[in-house]
């Protein structure tokens, strides 16, 4: 079979779907990776990684963050042309624009067949995060586009129950589509191996984009509270700066640095060394699909702190492998960090529990096997593996 995997970044496809791609190719399928056109050299290293897996790359135009109808129309037309030319047997699309325009373009092109169109909701994005007039308008537009696109898809996968229930409440899901649950992208437990946490100094690490909805302002407030009592604690931010809607300006992050609240580490192509040096990982996000940053941290034996929000509560067992705190609650975040400072053995114990959870429920190998089975492209090598997803 020829399986087209459609995403919005070569980097994300490499980081999150390499195990799935390897399984496809090992089972004898052709993996066709559809990735956006970028500036010279911008994503070259990630495209080389995909090619190194044995996948074939096809580029298409995509305005990843913009809301320009004409540019989105160009994306739709380009995908239609690609599907007409390549004629894949299966489409697997994830993230907002690839899902909407990928499923629609596939329907217009007539390939693959409806049963071969699979889409995954990996997160809901900017328009679902608040109640401003602009976001309300964008939400109505998103409802229409999602409803139309999913009406032409055979199966939709959700990474958490909250997103599925919201789509049902907003009447986005057509009755004809098969609704399935997935353990996110899973985590490669062989790549993110366990390491003993450092003793001193305590480092609380945030990994993610610099977005307001990631809870960065609450994190800075929590850092101020913690460092008043425990000045030796270091709060580090690792992730790319953002300029689109909902971004926390880099100038604001630099101001927090000057106040001694956080250390900004920039972005990286390899997160593991930073996780090794961290005592615990924190993610106060208001909403997630299934947070890869937390899963990677837990796979490496790190305790985690997260807001009790959709997505995060799927992977954090409060009091077992980490702490869940109220959403947008700086004091709750600070109290959770203080627990680790007052009880040094707690982070080690919770980190071990997190590693066990990743091995048992969130392995990328198991997620890949289930997705291939669902697509009708069964991984023959692991056909008897445990299946984490289920038809709802």
Would you mind describing this structure in some detail?
Residues 380-392 have low confidence and may be disordered. The strands form two sheets. The protein has an eight-stranded mixed sheet with strand order 3-2-1-4-5-6-7-14, sandwiched between helices. α7 (216-229) packs across α12 and α10 (292-299) packs across α13. The two termini are 26 Å apart. By secondary structure, the protein is of the alpha/beta class. The protein has two domains: 2-186 and 363-391, Rossmann fold, CATH 3.40.50; 203-361, 3-Layer(aba) Sandwich (Rossmann fold), CATH 3.40.50. It has helices at 10-26, 44-52, 69-86, 96-109, 133-150, 161-169, 216-229, 250-258, 272-277, 292-299, 312-315, 330-342, 344-361, 364-375, and strands spanning 2-6, 30-36, 56-60, 90-94, 117-121, 155-158, 178-181, 203-207, 234-238, 263-264, 280-283, 303-307, 322-325, 390-391. Helices cover 43% and strands 16% of the residues.
